[in-house]
């Protein structure tokens, strides 16, 4: 099947051709016709499957086909994402494939100045890509009218719920007109996601290219058991012995990301850290340096890594296992993208055995265990509790079950100094012929 068989107009097909793409991915082949048929969609799509184009292409086509009679440019499509990076990535897709269409778009998120965003919206836009917090800021300041919305997309909905955005999402939904097309994309299907979908979607079509809550079969998964105080030593051993030139490493906390990155630099490994306390400029520079090969090891927290799209990223390392099993699926989805192979390695100490059990239960498979010579685990070390266990997702500890989760502030405008707003983001290097 080619893109020309999917019901897309010549303007969109021209943009696709200029990008060098010929064949739609499975998620695109399944989702585009359904979205064009005006039905609500519930899509189980891993990152790296081409899901972004899977909804941006038909969304642009639907806008073109829609009989919108108001001559004044008004917001007709709203795409919500959990993080700035993902918002910028989606905005780039809209801009790239809509360049021959008369639509204006804006990407809206926190961490940058709000006044330039107000000025941009005042000129009129058709499509908004936004994080929930900043969107509500603009609505509360009467800088945004969503009364003409025809299309709503929730991208990585599971991550938005993980971050505590459910109340923000409900506030936004209450503002929108009832007659609209709704598209919900999620890599994992928790009970919370199903509940959200039940209240949002009307007779949705389920689009699924891989089983929900599963890891990509293109990703080789390995566990190395290691003592906690030797994790850094083992990571250095793996990077140097295997001559890894590009590896994404996950830590559980922002402080841990900084500490590990600084330690790697001291050991002559070029490294940078990205997390919510970094300014948007610093995060963008670190990511660009990683893509361009100036940085070998990028250390990231779960939230900051959303939107990282490096098509041929060969290695992902879980320096620490995530508190929530679903996050493991998102993490390793950074490799093995667009049909490429990848390796996901987890460094697991005795404290994390409970987390590992939860992950294997979620993905319904045992992960291969490989012992590294010289790093034999000390059997006398006893497990200690890990702090800050979460009460979301696939819980491995129910002691905090009744505690209220506050939304994380990675996208708020208060945790970084205002900076000049830029509506464009640097392009991701793409070599495959699948979007």
UniProtKB/TrEMBL annotation:
One MF annotation (Gene Ontology) recorded for this entry: RNA helicase activity
Q: Name one GO cellular component term.
A: cytosol
List the EC numbers from the record.
3.6.4.13
Keyword hit for Hydrolase: yes
Where is the signal peptide, in residue numbers?
none
For the region Disordered, give the residue spans: 381-435
Using the record's annotation, list all stretches that form the Helicase ATP-binding domain.
Answer: 32-207
What UniProt keywords are attached to this protein's entry? ATP-binding, Cytoplasm, Helicase, Hydrolase, Nucleotide-binding
Claim: Kinase is one of the keywords in the record: no
Q: Where is the composition biased (Low complexity)?
A: 387-402
UniProt xrefs under InterPro entries: DEAD/DEAH_box_helicase_dom, DEAD/DEAH_RhlB, DEAD_box_RNA_helicase, Helicase_ATP-bd, Helicase_C-like, P-loop_NTPase, RNA-helicase_DEAD-box_CS, RNA_helicase_DEAD_Q_motif
The UniProt entry, under PANTHER family, shows: ATP-DEPENDENT RNA HELICASE RHLE, ATP-DEPENDENT RNA HELICASE RHLE-RELATED
Q: What is this protein called?
A: ATP-dependent RNA helicase RhlE
The protein's organism comes out as bioreactor metagenome
């Amino acid at each position: 099947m080619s893109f020309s068989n999917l019901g897309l107009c010549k303007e969109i097909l021209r943009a696709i051709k200029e990008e060098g793409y010929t064949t739609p991915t499975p998620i695109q082949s399944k989702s585009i016709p359904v979205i064009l048929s005006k039905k609500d969609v519930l899509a189980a799509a891993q990152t790296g499957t081409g899901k972004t184009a899977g909804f941006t292409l038909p969304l642009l086509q639907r806008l073109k086909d829609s009989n919108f009679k108001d001559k004044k440019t008004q917001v007709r499509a709203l795409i919500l994402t959990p993080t700035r990076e993902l918002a910028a990535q989606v905005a780039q897709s809209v801009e790239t494939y809509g360049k021959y269409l008369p639509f204006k778009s804006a990407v809206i998120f926190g961490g940058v100045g709000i006044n330039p965003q107000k000025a941009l919206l005042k000129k009129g836009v058709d499509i908004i890509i936004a994080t929930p917090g900043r969107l509500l800021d603009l609505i509360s300041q009467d800088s945004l009218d969503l009364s003409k919305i025809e299309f709503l997309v929730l991208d990585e909905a599971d991550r938005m719920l993980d971050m505590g955005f459910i109340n923000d999402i409900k506030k936004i939904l209450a503002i929108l007109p009832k007659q609209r097309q709704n598209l919900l994309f999620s890599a994992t299907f928790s009970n919370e996601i199903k509940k959200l979908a039940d209240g949002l979607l009307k007779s949705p079509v389920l689009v699924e290219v891989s089983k929900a809550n599963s890891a990509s079969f293109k990703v080789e998964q390995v566990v190395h058991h290691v003592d906690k105080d030797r994790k850094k030593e083992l990571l250095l051993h793996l990077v140097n012995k295997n001559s890894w030139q590009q590896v994404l490493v996950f830590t559980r906390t922002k402080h841990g990301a900084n500490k590990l990155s600084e330690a790697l630099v001291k050991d002559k490994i070029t490294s940078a850290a990205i997390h919510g306390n970094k300014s948007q400029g610093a995060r963008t520079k670190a990511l660009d340096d990683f893509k361009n090969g100036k940085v070998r090891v990028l250390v990231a927290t779960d939230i900051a890594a959303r939107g990282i799209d490096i098509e041929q990223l060969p290695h992902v390392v879980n320096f620490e296992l995530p508190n929530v099993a679903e996050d493991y699926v998102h993490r390793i989805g950074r490799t093995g993208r667009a049909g490429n192979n990848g390796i996901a390695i987890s460094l697991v100490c005795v404290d994390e055995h409970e987390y590992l059990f939860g992950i294997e239960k979620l993905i319904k498979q045992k992960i291969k265990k490989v012992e590294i010579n010289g790093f034999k685990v000390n059997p006398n070390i006893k497990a200690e509790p890990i702090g800050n266990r979460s009460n979301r997702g696939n819980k491995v500890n129910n002691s905090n079950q009744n505690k209220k989760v506050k939304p994380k502030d990675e996208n708020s405008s208060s945790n970084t100094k205002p900076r000049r707003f830029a509506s464009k983001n640097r392009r991701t290097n793409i070599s495959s012929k699948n979007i």
